[in-house]
Amino acid sequence: MSPSRNPGENGVAMMVRWQDWANVLLGCWLVVSPDQLGYSLNAAASGNAFGLGAVLVIFNLISACRLVEKGQEIFNIVLGIWLLLSPFALGFEPEREATINAMTVGALVAVLAVWQMRDAIRRGTK
């Protein structure tokens, strides 16, 4: 799926990539997931989910609005890798729901970032 063009300020076209919005939704999910999945009493797991969820939402909203043009994919790959490793680094891997959630969202964030990079390379913008 290729990005669509929307007119921006002063008639300048801006790229709208669906992956940015998917990451915003994943960030929103991370913020509410401790309550929804029942691990809100685990400070490490819920703090990780709240914090990274908020970062994903804010950063990808900035990216979706095209306030950041370069490096957002690398940042999302780093966040995705951290989410994959965080259950083991923070010691909440026995918490099954939290571990599966962090690893699944992390894998999705990293895959979406790689997809964005691939699309940018195919368009010749990177």
Short description:
The protein is 70% helix and 6% strand. The protein is mostly helical and 126 residues long. The protein has one domain.
Question: What attributes does this structure have?
Answer:
4 helices; disordered N terminus; mainly alpha; single chain
What does this structure look like?
With 126 residues, the chain is mostly helical. It is 70% helix and 6% strand. The chain is built from four helices and two strands. The chain has a two-stranded antiparallel sheet with strand order 1-2.
What is the CA-based Rg, rounded?
16 Å
Give the strand content. Answer: 5-15%
Query: Structural class of the helix and strand makeup?
Result: mainly alpha
**Helical proportion?**
55-70%
- First-last Cα distance: 17 Å
> What is the number of strand segments?
2
User: Strands of the largest sheet, in order across it?
Assistant: 1-2
Number of H- or I-type helical stretches: 4
Helix and strand element order: EEHHHH
Q: Describe the global form.
A: elongated
* Overall pLDDT level: 86
Largest sheet entry: 2 strands, antiparallel
Number of domains: 1
Low-confidence stretches: 1-14
Helix and strand topology:
Blueprint: E1 4-7, E2 13-16, H1 18-37, H2 43-64, H3 72-89, H4 96-123
Antiparallel strand pairs: 1-2
